[in-house]
Structures are given as C-alpha cells and as structure tokens.
Amino acid sequence: MKIIKIIVAIFLMSVTTMSAQQKQPNILFIAIDDLRPQLNAYGLNHMITPNLDALASEGRLFANHFAQVPTCGPSRAVMLTGKNLKSKEEIGHHILGKKLAKIKKKKDPETFIHHLKRNGYYTVGMGKISHSISGSYKNKLELPNSWNAFLKNKDGYQMYANGQKRNKKTTPPFEMLEVEDEAYPDGRLAQVAIKELEKRAKSDKPFFMAVGFLRPHLPFSAPKKYWDLYKREEIPLSPNPEAPTGVAKEFLHQSGEFFGQYYSPEKGGAGVRISDDYARQVIHGNFASVSYVDAQVGKVLDRLKKLKLDKNTIVVVWGDHGWHLGDQTIWGKHSTFENALKSTMIVKTPKMEKAGKETKSLIAAVDIYPTLCDLANITKPENLDGKSFACILKNPKKSTREAVLSYWRDQISMRTDRYRLAVFNDGKKQELMLFDHDKDPNETVNIAATSPKIIADLLPLLIKMNKGYLPNLK
Fold first, then answer.
1. Mean per-residue pLDDT for 160-180?
2. Phi, psi for residue 442 in degrees, rounded to 5
3. What 3-state class would DSSP assign to 314?
4. Is 46 one of the catalytic residues?
5. Residue, of 115 and 89, whose pLDDT is higher
6. Neighbour-count burial of 270, counting CB atoms closer than 10 A to its CB (0-12 exposed, 13-18 middle, 19+ buried)
7. CA-CA distance, 344 to 100, in Å (whole number)?
8. For 333, which of 12, 32, 61, 201 is 20 to 30 Å away at the CA?
9. Which residue in 65, 72, 321, 324 is the catalytic one?
C-alpha cells in the first residue's frame, strides 16, 4: 500500500511538472520613451544603469536594434502591428487611434497584444504604450480590442514635478528638485505596475503586461539624487557635435521640439552648435533621467523576482527610438541618422541560452511581433512585415536580416552591417547620404558622392525594401 502511494505521488508530481512546463510564458513588456542605447551595458562606463545592466547580463542585449520611425506614435504603431508604414501621410502620433479607436470588431488582430489576447493571454497595459499615456484617443481606447484592462491615469507627457505644466517661455527642458521618485509620473507608474504584478501572481492565466515609462523623454526631469550620481565636469560631450561634411541641409533639422517647446538661453540645430557648458547641463539632465527610469524598471523587475514570476516570464525592454544629444548639431530625434534610429533592446527569456552575450545582429522594431508569437508558441499572422529573431535569443551569432529600413517624412534610411544609406526625395529632387560605419561610426563624413559603386550596390536593395513609401525613388 505504501509503495502504491509513493508511485501515485510521483505520478502526480510529474503531471504537475508537465503542466507547469507546458504553460505559456508570461510576457512583461517595458517601453521606454526616447531611450537610445545609452547604458553601461552598451559599454558606456560613465552611465549608471545597474538594473538594466543586470537584465542585460541575464538576457540578450541587442547592439543593432533600429526603430522604423524616429518619433513616438508611428514607431509604436509599427512595433505593435508588425507592419511598416505605407506612406509619409501615416507619420502622425495618433495613427493607431485614428485607425482603430472606432473599430469594434476586427477579423485580423489589430496588434500583437490583441493576438495574444485571442490566444488565451490576459492583457493589461499602463503608461505610454501606443501613444497616449491614458490609452485613449478622443475618449476612446486607441487599441479597443487589445486590452483586457488598461489602467488609466491623469499624468501627462511633458511633466515636471507634481504635475507642473510645460511653458515654452519659462520652463527649461530639464528639472532637478529634492523630491521623491513618485513626484514624477514614472515613479507612480512603477508602483501601479508592482500592484498589478501582485494581482497577476494570484492568477493561473498567462499574462501580457505592458508598462510604458516616459523618461528620458523631454523634459529631462528627475529627482536630485539622480543628478548627483554624475559630476558635470566629467560628463562627455557628443563625439560628433558638428554637421557632417557633405550632407545636404534636408537631412538636418532645427530641433524644434527642444528649442521650440521649452525655454532655452541658447539656440542651435541645423548646423548650429550650442556652447559646451550648456550642452553639458542638458546632457547631465538626460543622464539623470536615464538613471531615474533605470531605478523604476528595477523596482518592477525586483517585484517580478520576489513573486517568483520571473521563472516563467519573458521580459522585453524596448526604446521606441533614439535621440541626438548634440550629435550632428541636433538635439532631439526626427532624423534618419544612426542616433535617432538606434535604440535600447533587451530580451530575457526563461532558461535563457548563452545569457549575457551581446548580439550585433541587425533587428528592427517591426520584428517584435513575430518574435513574441514564436516565444509564446502561437501561430503568426501571414501578413507581417517583421522577421522573428527568436533564433538570436538562442544563439547571438545568428542573423535574420540583411538590412533594416527606416523612414521619416521625405526620407528613407537603410542600415546594413557596414553602411547607412539615406535618401531624401520630395518628388522634386533627390539627395543621398552614405556613411561607412566600419570607418566612420559617428557619421561625420558623407561619402555618397565619392562612392558610386557602393551606391549602385545598395540603392537597388533600398528601393526593393521600400514598397512604395517614397514612390519617386530612383
């Protein structure tokens, strides 16, 4: 009788183990606004980002992840739908809200979140995921079919401590105050995320939870303790602060968000540098904001581990695009240079293979959709533009792409392992911009005019990948 009981107990244990192994993994998706690859984990020893660095040591750090659009709403639209934009008219922050908010039923999933929901996931979002931090467009959900729950809040985008609003005549693009983390939206959001994880821990249903942090989006506002992590005199300036040699003016811009929406004692952009002293002050604010959001991410990841949810949870940290910190005289995004398009990407899976190994393989934001489908063991829709990089999570030396395409208004930019080729074409004229990243990683000299053979090799590939975004390319 005792032997039979032991056999039954062993059988029940094995069934329980099989059930746990077969359960779909949870997914914690953390979007961070304007976060270029500016972490200590990326080799920037001056950055203080211990929590994201720790995640990178446990997962896969992507050295060459590129956004398709260097601005918030459209970049997120591409990532969420797994589809590239078809025309420059689609470049607007509320693209998803305008397309989806009024649609009650949809045959095809509106986003990968909707697809996960259809396949048994409980989906919950908070913060800036599609674009609006409230999740709404004109009082309707931007993604009406994607969420089981979207946790609304009254915080705005460009916020100073305790809800002070932006005034372009008086408020600077940064703030340093002796306040607690929760004085800013991201500190409050971290606490909301922690409470939601505690709820998810009590449920047997697999979950997809999206948390959208605002910093380091302008203004560079963070509690003083994060500013104090850095000595201003030691803060490095941009390695490429001048406009690139031989680049047409169409590829530069006035940094309108930075100089037009906030008070600034100096004006720059489009070939004009600001003083080194003011540049260091601004960069100091950016560094503080990055360290601040790193701390908030750390709080969420710490609770994930304490709840033992990390054992069966995929964690994705995604920067929606890059940002120029005075590079090429630009302060902001909205360009087709490397700095505006390359962003942070870290993925950690349960039982991560070759954890902590960085990959230099090219991937795109549009690839996230099919990758999550593979990781969740669900069938991918057939009409996606992205390519799954699940194989790179197993082996960092694998590759899935020959090139990544990005676009901004009248420009298209293509990145290969070695080159970045950008084209401006407004239907009246065409300008080219080519950089050799093996020799010029900071994109300081346009070699398009002196490299006809390289152009002849790359331009047909760019045109082939374009699929009509700029119809006049030649």
1. 91
2. -95, 5
3. strand
4. no
5. 115
6. middle
7. 28
8. 61
9. 72
